[in-house]
Amino acid sequence: MLNKEITIKTIYQKIQDNDLQDLHNREIVLKGFVRNNRCLGQVGFLSVNDGSCFLNAQVVYKVKDEKITSIRLGSTVIVKGRINLTIGGYQPFEIESEEVILVSQTNENYPLQKKKTSFDFLRTIPTLRMKTNTFNAVFRVRDSLSYNIHRYFHENGYVWIHTPIITANDCEGEGQTFQVVADSKHPEEYFNKDNVHLTVSGQLHVEPFALTYQRVYTFGPTFRAEKSNTTRHAAEFWMIEPEVAWCDMEGIMDIEEDFLKFVVREVRKECPQDFEFFYQRVDKDLKKRLDDFENKKFARVKYSDAINILKEAKKTHKFEVDDIEFGLDLGSEHERYLTEEVFKGPIFLTDYPKDIKAFYMKMNDDNKTVRGVDLLVPTIGELCGGSEREDSYDKLLGRMNELKMNIPAYEWYLDLRKNGSAPHSGFGLGFERMMMLLTGMTNIRDTLPYPRCYKDMLY
Amino acid sequence: MLNKEITIKTIYQKIQDNDLQDLHNREIVLKGFVRNNRCLGQVGFLSVNDGSCFLNAQVVYKVKDEKITSIRLGSTVIVKGRINLTIGGYQPFEIESEEVILVSQTNENYPLQKKKTSFDFLRTIPTLRMKTNTFNAVFRVRDSLSYNIHRYFHENGYVWIHTPIITANDCEGEGQTFQVVADSKHPEEYFNKDNVHLTVSGQLHVEPFALTYQRVYTFGPTFRAEKSNTTRHAAEFWMIEPEVAWCDMEGIMDIEEDFLKFVVREVRKECPQDFEFFYQRVDKDLKKRLDDFENKKFARVKYSDAINILKEAKKTHKFEVDDIEFGLDLGSEHERYLTEEVFKGPIFLTDYPKDIKAFYMKMNDDNKTVRGVDLLVPTIGELCGGSEREDSYDKLLGRMNELKMNIPAYEWYLDLRKNGSAPHSGFGLGFERMMMLLTGMTNIRDTLPYPRCYKDMLY
């Protein structure tokens, strides 16, 4: 094993690099599953995918062999043969088979057939849908995105902190949580605490680490128990939350833009075959949108200016919620109008009214707005939310009292503003939102290997 | 921001590379927290850590300034000054300060003082302990280990699959689980299922992906609600679970050994200052143990042979459990005796009796033992557990019936052996066990940023 056998990915790579000398007529043992099997006169063609990349290898065999012609889609095979370079042809190489071993035949009602199946149906078979073109590409891109997120932070000196999943920390204003109990008759017994639940964000837990390592981030699962059934919400999703000391709101926008452009660029570079498929079959506008994302400078707009733009816009555009005044918590329709129609690209919206943002955001001198910043992008709306954090103990305590929060539960967090504090800022990125942006998939369930949503979970 | 300012890490790196020309007399703005402040006659010395690496910068200042001499440990400062190279001296450079700005003074009863504090005490202040030498190094190594695990798999063509945290899958034999409920009055309402709990392993969920991508892995949090309070168990911990198609038990041992040696080597290379500290202050034998781990070939021993060795050993060695016969589920004392006393290094123990191993392991022809393999290492005992998976539908079903398992709940898993199956193998590595191996820390709580254990959780 250990990667020593040649893979389909390596063959395509060598052809692209014009590194052909040891390729032609090379012996190969190919193990994979069958994507297609058809005969033309005396020869048959098996499309075999070995999992190393999106594209298949075409295996040529003689049709005399009944055992091979009857191999069904999805079956697994071992092919022994030789590589035949056919550069300039419909595909740049084939495999001339010497032997095809059928390892596991699928049964006749195997659900993935050549006819097109709906995403809704495929969601009912999460153990098979990754064998279709679309989901094969989606989960490969998911891997590449995950890795390149880690790569960006690692190469830029950030420390990954595994903030806890189970927490007893209060998280007011963050919506419904899932309770965690070892024994339902004595829910507080296991941890000696009541109100133990699944995390909704690692931010508060990661902040102390930023005050030591300066640049830190989290990347882990987060949970919301909201009873909403939309294409954009899941009960379990992954979040990335960088936190940077000695950094203000302007600085965190610089980082956010640099980071997002890096990952979009690197993932596209790493998965070219998958993106070709998305451009052609999933979303015709995707390529242009991603090009713009990589190349255009993100606009920076104050919330109050955005309100004025929307007020003006409603003279000619119909909004569902059209009571547009300072203080409005913008809906998806407003966000998308701004990013899609007005700025035609990603925008940072800054300096929101304090009443619609979290307690920890740094107050501006006007005492009305906070140093919070959302990143809005076409087709998605809000992609990231971030802020400079309030670093004054007195101001933070004052704001928490105004909001009638449970101060003792937050004492550890408040104390960070006393003992060797520093200004700091951070943001949160919903991983699956980023997946939707990258792939053009429009339902969050189709970016998750096993989606967990309201009334909707398998295994 | 964006990494453009020079860090302490970069200075040490440049000195090590003998890349000195733009270093001497270079202007620097250093932001960090104070680890020490002392005066000697007319000059004072501040040790400042900027979070970029384990080592501090020594800042030299004139003691005339009362404001600087009174800066307490843990306070944050901004130092403006110039780098003064002192190669060959006690440290290779100092910073001659022009200005020291006190950003946040710690209060007088700040808990981290120069005197030595116990790990037990430090566990009560998880928001501060990473500012001590030990934990500063531990969490930096944790980051490096995480990254290099991803790096190994990525560079070897594995696809990272985010298996679900919340699951309704049965997991018999894996001990107690935490229930997840959105509403304790109607626990089954949210997902339309009862028995919704936190995952104990991603293995079953990742197997279907191995049958498509061939090489896959999980890396995420896992949970056990066992009511045990030991130094080796946590209720929440992270696991790595690679799964490889077309791979047998021998193959998975090859991968395991290659993988573990890679990460040990790369993490030590990436964090030399931190390991120097562990060698000197945490565990005097650590360096030799890690050298051996990297360089020695891991022994491969059959369980039945190990039993014979232990039977022989008990003539001269006292075991707590000394009823040593084929069928015994080895305890930590037996495992450690084998790896520490007999083989003096890591060993793979293979071909366990079926009755002490999980239902999914491939049966040997003797119908008595399975193709399961545990990796045992000195000081830790079991580090990884893995196996070749049973790929025969009939044998797997037979074994599950023998164990009186709830077959309908596993139908999706059984079906993987029917429709385009392939032989496959995998293993699981407890991330925190690996941390203990690497750092010499002996309590799992001291490898986790916010440990969650029985009766033991903060925030």
Structural class of chain A: alpha+beta
Q: Approximately how much beta-strand content do the residues of chain A carry?
A: 15-25%
The largest sheet of chain A has its strands arranged as: 6-10-11-16-15-14-13-12
> What is the radius of gyration of chain A computed over CA atoms, rounded to a whole number of angstroms?
26 Å
The CA-CA distance between the termini of chain A, in Å, is: 31 Å
Q: Count the strands of chain A?
A: 16
Overview of the structural elements:
2 copies of one chain form a homodimer. In chain A, α4 crosses α6, α4 crosses α7 and α6 (249-270) crosses α8. The model of chain A has no long low-confidence stretch (mean pLDDT 94). Chain A has helices at 8-16, 66-69, 119-122, 133-155, 203-213, 249-270, 272-282, 286-295, 303-313, 332-342, 393-402, 411-415, 431-439; strands at 27-40, 43-49, 57-62, 76-85, 93-104, 159-160, 166-167, 179-181, 197-198, 215-223, 236-245, 299-302, 347-350, 372-377, 381-388, 424-430. Chain A contains 13 helices and 16 strands. The two termini of chain A are 31 Å apart. The longest helix of chain A has 23 residues, at 133-155. An 8-stranded mixed beta sheet of chain A has the order 6-10-11-16-15-14-13-12, with helices on both faces. A 5-stranded mixed β-barrel of chain A has the order 1-2-3-5-4. With 459 residues, chain A is of the alpha+beta class. β8 (179-181) of chain A pairs antiparallel with β8 of chain B, so a sheet runs across the interface.
